[in-house]
Target: nicotinate-nucleotide diphosphorylase (carboxylating)
Amino acid sequence: MLTPVLITDTVQRALAEDAPWGDLTGELAIPADASVRTVLNAREAGVFAGGPLIVEAFRQVDPRIEVTELAAEGTPFQAGDVLARVAGPARGVLTGERIALNFAQRMSGVATLTAQFVAAVAHTHARIADTRKTTPGLRALEKHAVRAGGGSNHRFSLSDAVMIKDNHLAALGAVDAATTTAALAGLRERAGHTTAIVVEVDRVDQIAPVLAARPTGILLDNFSLAELRAGVDLIAGQAVVEASGGVTLDTVAGIAETGVDVISVGLLTHGARALDLGLDAE
Model:
């Protein structure tokens, strides 16, 4: 969630990186009383995200800068559309331009890619979710952008839910069906009643012993389409069924059609490119 504190802190860090001792070019080349009017132009189609960061970037540089006609988060746009207007002291606008664009381009890129995945599975009941494969320090921004694109958020951090993966099972000595069920059996009692428990499996024969431990969800990792269908049939609504592993726009529809409930896609964040947006003087 993009809280005011998080937005303020993120922009402060970005400004400290980009203009640690001020904007030398602006201070030497631009008159102090000069003003400018600019528009945030879309140079390609996409889905918008990052508006609150744009506003905060210019506010921190110079509170006199006005950001108006700002597109709402999740707004689809076409090339040539105006997404915002920015006007005020020229030095401030030029100082804040790059980090404002960096936030908007990156977040809109994530939102746009997410929207493409969501559209690809719209004929099914499957939800598209992100992962923890995010840019260090920018997770909240990127997960916000996923929601702007119509996707769902997976757990935000390791603190949010129990998620048992293959290395956890190996550390617990779960080498067969009996030891797997036994290793997982106490989780439900030890976890709070509101805590989700998800267990990852990479073979169909692992599903039954995991299901016996009553998890909230079972993650089918790198299953073929036939294996996904078999997994959905075996679980039969007793747990949320999640698919993951190398999901692309070319494969996601087929995965969704197997009947899984959630498809987690690391590509949404680690594979999204920045959209081409520009701040142009009017």
In short: The longest helix spans residues 90-120. Residues 24 and 212 are 65 Å apart (CA to CA). The two ends are 34 Å apart (CA to CA).
